[in-house]
Amino acid sequence: MSFSGFTQHDFNAFQIEGLDARMEAIQERIQPKFQAISDDVISDLEMLAGNEMHLHIARHARRTKNPPVDTWMAFSHNKRGYKMHPHFQIGLFDDHVFVWLAYIYELPGKPQMATLLLDHMDKLIEDVPASYWISTDHTKKKASQPLKDVELDKVLTRFRDVKKGEFLIGRHFTSDDPLLQDGEQFIQEVKKTFESLMPFYRLSLQPTT
């Protein structure tokens, strides 16, 4: 199937009480759309990255009580997982869609990657629009801010020095953004976002020794 866009019905999944009922809604409403998005973008992403990329859809398998407040898909060069590597994410909270290049706390070699990004920060940031967003914690909506409102060197320094520090950069689309209801237009914006973030991704995969 082709991706037809997100609707308020998808976002309403996060208003459903109870782990099992919310997960059922996520699986029925959102996860098929994640697969459709992947079908539309993964070949372009592979060409940009210069290597094979694999889709990982969050299963929330470790949850036993509290329902998830967000859900996501991830693309990684590693077939077995994504959390221990720089990866691309597309996902939903109850009020917005996010499109990230993500470096989360499980990442080995985090200080070395952060140092690479710090060393090349000025060059890398030249082509990233000020409308992009930064997050320092992928689990919390309030950890996200517009790029224009953050001091990137401080964010990357925290990512380097704090064990639980994270760095995510990308875009937000509010749930009422008409673009989300136009599947083709959203896919094009995702591809543009991935292309603009690819220099970060490629740099962070360089050997650090």
**Order of helix and strand elements from N to C terminus:** HHEEEEHHEEHEH
Numbering strands along the chain, what is their spatial order in the largest sheet? 1-2-3-4-7-5-6
The helix tally amounts to 6
Give the oligomeric state.
single chain
What's the CATH architecture?
A: 2-Layer Sandwich
Shape by Cα distribution: globular
Care to count the β-strands? 7
* β-strand amount: 15-25%
* Helix amount: 25-40%
* Major beta sheet summary: 7 strands, antiparallel
What is the arithmetic mean of pLDDT?
92
Q: What's the N-to-C terminus distance? A: 44 Å
Low-confidence stretches: none
Helix vs. strand class: alpha+beta
The CATH class designation is: Alpha Beta
Q: How large is the radius of gyration?
A: 17 Å
Domains (count): 1
User: What's the name of the CATH homologous superfamily?
Assistant: Protein of unknown function DUF1054
In CATH, the topology is named BirA Bifunctional Protein, domain 2
